[in-house]
Amino acid sequence: xxxxxxxxxxxxxxxxxxxxxxxxxxxxxxxxxxxxxxxxxxxxxxxxxxxxxxxxxxxxxxxxxxxxxxxxxxxxxxxxxxxxxxxxxxxxxxxxxxxxxxxxxxxxxxxxxxxxxxxxxxxxxxxxxxxxxxxxxxxxxxxxxxxxxxxxxxxxxxxxxxxxxxxxxxxxxxxxxxxxxxxxxxxxxxxxxxxxxxxxxxxxxxxxxxxxxxxxxxxxxxxxxxxxxxxxxxxxxxxxxxxxxxxxxxxxx
Length: 253
Known about the structure:
By secondary structure, this protein is α/β, with parallel strands linked by helices.
């Protein structure tokens, strides 16, 4: 919660929230922790809270729907929604797959729609844009949609200027989008997205370095770097209230 507040003070308008075991630091599927974190963040600031549905899957696959449905019912401002399956990227040569069938994507999208939660459509590969379009056509996702281009490389989209331009061109004209890239590509892709009119995600989930060989002390330091970069490139920093208008999210509950 304190880390979120520091990032907010540094200029972040959205926090992408995972729950971690206080003793081990590992990501967990504990919805009680998610609610505790969410409530405490709400006490401190009006930052937009985006709770993960991709992280914290340490439950049997047959119980995953129940866990995520319960999480969506917390009614945060946003939930991440991975738009398809992808081979695991950290160690690409193995049998691990991050599974998100189209039927599951649609179920979760409809639950978000029912609870008034804005989905963040996470795109790991170009075909997932087509899945998002299908979900919009079927009424599971309401426009204008917000896309997150997750440029993981290896088993997904490579973090290049050409690829980012393609992705931004392929989504609906009324959509908003942001980019996150892994490791040393985080800031270069941020620098490309900003003058393109996109938005930026940074943080320890994706990268732990402030610059080459220099470890970031906090997520807030990474946010601060993007804030300085945006100002140099002539882009204003949105407050949470302004970001709600940009993303078509209702006022804070």
